[in-house]
Specification:
Elements: E1 7-16, E2 22-30, E3 35-39, H1 62-76, H2 84-95, H3 105-122, H4 127-132, E4 138-139, E5 141-148, E6 161-166, H5 172-194, H6 214-227, E7 234-239, E8 246-247, E9 250-253, E10 256-258, H7 260-273, E11 276-280, H8 288-297, E12 302-305, H9 313-322, E13 327-330, H10 332-335, H11 338-350, E14 354-358, H12 368-375, E15 380-382, H13 389-405, E16 408-409
Helix pairs in contact: 2-3, 5-6, 7-8, 12-13
Family: Belongs to the enolase family.
Pathway: Carbohydrate degradation; glycolysis; pyruvate from D-glyceraldehyde 3-phosphate: step 4/5
Subcellular location: Cytoplasm; Secreted; Cell surface
Length: about 425
């Protein structure tokens, strides 16, 4: 193998994410003079089983950068960037813990992404082509979080994300235009009812009006869907992030306290009233059984695990065994390397579980997860509202891929 593919240097940077917090960027350079970077995003609502971020006491990442410049640089020197698995295994071994707590999941995922992107560039390939090869046929359906509650907002809503899903369209571009029209109409409705102040954007580009109850938010969004003429083409979704409002074995939502079994009826009633196609983390992250019961009752809704699984094969196996969900979120920084992410996606697909490649609330402007979603042929991509550069960069990248490579839109295939 040519020495030009071998790693000459690994370098770390302390950069800013979309919340103004510090995060890690890693640049990998080969002896052939090719280099590319990887960024580590960060979540606000996290599962307890996620890979651990290495952070300084003040929230910075100077120690993580030091480890990248010294330990990781020395360890990966001379590896071929084409050998993703060997490099990721070296990072896992270097850390030596089950949750990347020694050198940090933020350092390992940024390095892993930088390696893949550098390898792709070295071969003159688009990232998605390098990931997926000739199997790539289509682009995924976007899940757009256009109204926020929970930890993503300052209102009384407990559900964290209210989502529109533009399914019945011929192209990704058309689906995104429709979603943008709905988003704009939603902001107009909020301005009319509550004042322009409440159209200010949250972490993921969604609005956060002064609402208290889940149905109020669903009514508002569904009104915007109908008024823009997309009823029947655009569906609704929610990310409950229910672990955040679960305490002492009850769920506190809509000004009431619900038992876990009462929450099953709560979600079923919502799905009967609104065209809800997607429901993420409806229960706390340890309740595999009630996920399963709800999924059995909601045949047409994709009940999805995020905190339930944290992109970890061990927990996905448990969910498969219990038939807990028909969908899973994929966030590479939850597990810490791309090789582990690919293993996770493969297991999900083998068991007919729909794959949703997802951003984090603290993102960077890098559009890599768009290429990842296309490369692994995910069913969906979840990357926020059609606003804020760190969100639109992902959508714009898929528009680019769709047009340049003539890929189909997955919407009507689902």
């Amino acid at each position: 193998m040519s020495d030009s593919f071998r790693i000459r240097k690994v370098k770390g940077y302390q950069i800013l994410d979309s919340r103004g917090n510090r995060t890690v960027r890693v640049r990998v350079e080969t002896y052939g003079g090719i280099s590319d970077f990887g960024d580590a995003p960060a979540g606000a609502s996290k599962g307890t089983r996620e890979a651990v971020e290495l952070r300084d006491k003040d929230g910075g990442v100077t120690e993580a950068v030091r480890i990248i410049d010294s330990v990781i640089n020395d360890s990966l020197h001379g590896f071929s960037v084409l050998d993703q698995l060997a490099i990721d295994q070296a990072l896992i071994k270097l850390d030596g813990t089950s949750n990347k707590s020694r050198i940090g999941g933020n350092t390992t995922i940024a390095t892993s992404i930088a390696v893949l992107k550098t390898a792709s560039k070295s071969l003159g390939l688009e990232y998605f082509k390098y990931i997926g090869g000739p199997r790539v046929r289509y682009v995924p359906i976007p899940l757009l979080n256009i109204l926020n509650g929970g930890l993503h907002a300052g209102n009384m809503l407990k559900i964290q994300e209210f989502i529109v899903i533009p399914k019945e369209f011929d192209t990704f571009s058309e689906a995104l235009i429709a979603s943008t029209s709905i988003y704009k109409r939603l902001k107009e409705l909020i301005t009319e009812r509550y004042g322009k102040l409440y159209t200010a954007l949250g972490d993921e580009g969604g609005v956060a009006p002064p609402l208290e109850k889940t149905r109020d938010a669903l009514d508002l969004i569904y009104t915007a869907v109908k008024q823009t003429g997309y009823d029947g083409q655009v569906y609704l979704g929610m990310d409950a992030a229910a672990s955040d409002f679960f305490k002492d074995d009850v769920y506190e939502i809509d000004g009431r306290r619900y038992s876990p079994d009462e929450m099953i009826d709560y979600y079923v009633s919502l799905a009967n009233e609104y065209p809800i196609l997607y429901l993420e983390d409806p229960f706390n992250e340890n309740d595999f059984e009630r996920f399963s019961i709800l999924q059995s009752k909601l045949k047409k809704t994709i009940v999805t695990g995020d905190d339930l699984y944290t992109t970890n094969v061990e927990y996905l196996k448990k969910g498969i065994e219990k038939k807990s969900t028909s969908g899973t979120i994929v966030k590479p920084n939850q597990i810490g390397t791309l090789s582990e992410t690919f293993d996770y996606i493969e297991l999900a697909k083998k068991n007919s579980i729909k794959v949703i490649v997802s951003h984090r609330s603290g993102e960077t402007e890098d559009s890599f997860i768009a290429d990842l979603a296309v490369g692994v042929q995910s069913d969906f991509i979840k990357t926020g509202a059609p606003a804020r550069g760190e969100r639109t960069s992902k959508y714009n990248r898929i528009i680019e891929i769709e047009r340049d490579y003539g890929l189909e839109y997955y919407g009507k295939k689902l």
